[in-house]
Amino acid sequence: MTPQDLEKYRLVIPDDALPRSIRHGDEEASGGFFYIPDFISCDEERYLLEKIEQCPKPKWKVLQNRRLQSWGGQVSSRNVLIPEAMPDWLVHYPPLVHRLAATGCFAKSLHQRPNHCLINEYLPGQGIMPHQDGGAYHATVATISLASHTVLDIYRWADDGEAVDSQHTTRARECDPAFSILQEPRSLLLTTGDAYRMYLHGIAERTREETSHLSRVVNGSSVRDRAIKAKVQAACGPNAGSDLDQYDVLIREKRVSLTFRDVEKVSKGLNALLVKH
């Protein structure tokens, strides 16, 4: 995929779901959400899952609602990356770092490619609270999903458009998602620019997606799996209602996500000299 190809994967967000400050064709708006199904092959997915499962237990950090691995180094409290070499199974086969750079999504970042990857494992019923990824990273995040689908809920700030001192004011988000994005296995979701900076994102802690959850999905036309696509279209269609809730659901299974970013501040200490390029 080339940067010229990327635009056709842009998601169209309803005007009433946009932050007020980027509505009405604001010339300052940039970036967006891009959903790319089948970004990796079935064989690549199986290989990645095998390599992740084979990682030693100390590599996993166990949290209350999921467990994760960190590759490429550790990000300090000062938003500086203490670098480590990426494993071959993220760099050479599959060549994910190169493939992501080739899309052009990191073209404006300092290193023009991701240098950090978080691998999260979500069991059915697990999720993550709505949040933003913070200032350590360039305003691009690339997430590849493995093994199962999920629904990513996108939220707006309740004080959208108002001047806020982030060091002294606790910001509130809207209670309900503005919209949602369904992420299939092997898909890539890119969030860039204003979409990265102006929204929050989270995954609800549930074991299945019901009609009410699927009705907010904005990328139904881009979904590749026919069974999933049919359920999303039914939930978003004119006949959606309580009758569908009894059977038209998607059951979650264990999902693994690979989230790539570019940490722009990198330590030049001894560890940096040991990193293989």
Automatic annotation (TrEMBL):
Pfam families recorded = 2OG-FeII_Oxy_2 (PF13532)
GO cellular component, as recorded: nucleus
Q: Does Nucleus count among this protein's keywords?
A: yes
Q: Which InterPro entries match?
A: AlkB-like, AlkB-like_sf, ALKBH6, Oxoglu/Fe-dep_dioxygenase_dom
Is Metal-binding a UniProt keyword of this protein?
Answer: yes
GO function terms (MF aspect): dioxygenase activity; metal ion binding
- Report domain Fe2OG dioxygenase positions: 113-264
SUPFAM superfamilies in alphabetical order: Clavaminate synthase-like
Q: What is its main location?
A: nucleus
Q: Where in the cell is it found?
A: Nucleus
Q: Which UniProt keywords apply?
A: Dioxygenase, Iron, Metal-binding, Nucleus, Oxidoreductase
**Family from the record:** Belongs to the alkB family.
Q: What is this protein called?
A: Fe2OG dioxygenase domain-containing protein
Q: What organism is the protein native to?
A: Pseudomicrostroma glucosiphilum
Q: What is the lineage of its organism?
A: Eukaryota, Fungi, Dikarya, Basidiomycota, Ustilaginomycotina
